[in-house]
Every structure is written in structure tokens, then in C-alpha cells.
Design a protein that fits this description.
The chain is 23% helix and 28% strand. The chain is an alpha+beta fold and 185 residues long.
Length: 185
């Protein structure tokens, strides 16, 4: 089932999410619904707060990049209760967007490599080192679990320059090709 994606201004996007356990109700259904929602919106990542749930879980697909990066073929992962346990000082700047901020794209600096710990959909614990685009998407989605958005990484000047777009979202008038849950003006 395709879920509505919560847009900028929805309180759940600024709330710190809570850990869950393997008894979380209908978890396999939620995971499938999140993948359906993300794929329908042409995203590469989706965090539970973006579908209105303040829980520490997100999904990532890198499969759409497989033509240029064969190592990403069939890459679809679930990250439950993730932690970033180490970040490299070496950083990289890249353009980012977010399904919760339709039409907003800005340059963000993030660590090139990170070491992470998480549980998969079967609650098996993993520890991995991530780099490149995978590392970036993980950090972006992880921010959602702490109530942060990629625009929080922008300078005051850049935030000022996108203020008009953000105000459109706060008025509930954003447009996208996917189903959204907007703030009621």
C-alpha cells in the first residue's frame, strides 16, 4: 500500500524517534508499504517518520543506480534501530533532496565513510563500514530519526534563499507526483 509522505512542517519530522523490537505490530507489512511508497515516489531512502511513525527505522534502495554502479543491483535494505558508531573526518559535498521537501535540492557536506550498527528486518544485528553514496543516504535517513532534515546542514544564507519554498509547504500547497500529507493551512 502506498502511504502518504509527510512534508516539511509536520511535527513528526522534528521528533526524536523511538527504538522498536521484533514485536512491533505488523512490521513486515509496514516494511513492504514503505518500499512501495518509496519506489512510487522514485526515492532511494525513506524513514519511518516520513510516513508519520516516530520509530527508528528506515529503508534504502540503491538498485536504481545499478546501471552505473553494478554493485548496487538488487540493493534493498531495512535498517532498524541504527547507530552511527564512527564517522570519518574526510567529508564530501553533494546535492541532496528529500521526499518530505519536494522541489528543494541543496548541497550538503557529510562524512565520506561511517561505521554503523543496526538490525535487519529479521532483527539480526549487523555492523558495517559504509562509504560513498550508501554512506550519504544512510546519514540522510539517520538524521530523520533524530528529528533533523538535510536543510539543517545549510548555512543561514542558503536557508534564507529557500524560505519561499518552505513557506509553500507550511501553507499546505506543495506539489509532487506522489501522495503527501501536508500541513493544513
Amino acid at each position: 500500500m502506498i502511504l502518504p509522505i509527510y512534508t516539511y512542517g509536520q511535527p513528526v519530522l522534528r521528533k526524536e524517534a523511538e527504538n522498536i523490537d521484533q514485536n512491533y505490530p505488523d512490521l513486515p507489512v509496514l516494511i513492504q508499504n514503505m518500499f512501495d511508497t518509496m519506489n512510487h515516489a522514485d526515492g532511494v531512502g525513506l524513514a519511518a517518520p516520513q510516513v508519520g511513525l516516530p520509530i527508528r527505522m528506515f529503508i534504502i534502495t540503491l538498485d536504481p543506480l545499478a546501471e552505473e554502479h553494478p554493485e548496487y543491483k538488487d540493493f534493498n535494505k531495512v535498517y532498524i534501530n541504527p547507530e552511527i558508531i564512527e564517522e570519518s573526518e574526510d567529508q564530501e559535498t553533494m546535492d541532496e533532496g528529500c521526499l518530505s521537501l519536494p522541489g528543494v535540492h541543496e548541497t550538503v557536506k557529510r562524512s565520506k565513510k561511517i561505521r554503523v550498527k543496526y538490525h535487519d528486518a529479521d532483527f539480526v544485528e549487523h555492523e558495517e563500514e559504509l562509504d560513498g553514496f550508501h554512506s550519504r543516504v544512510f546519514q540522510h535517513e539517520f538524521d530523520h530519526l533524530d528529528g533533523k532534515l538535510f536543510i539543517d546542514h545549510l548555512s543561514t544564507l542558503r536557508k534564507q534563499m529557500i524560505k519561499g519554498k518552505l513557506n509553500v509547504m507550511l501553507k499546505g500547497k506543495a506539489r509532487s507526483s506522489y501522495k503527501m500529507k501536508q500541513v493544513k493551512a
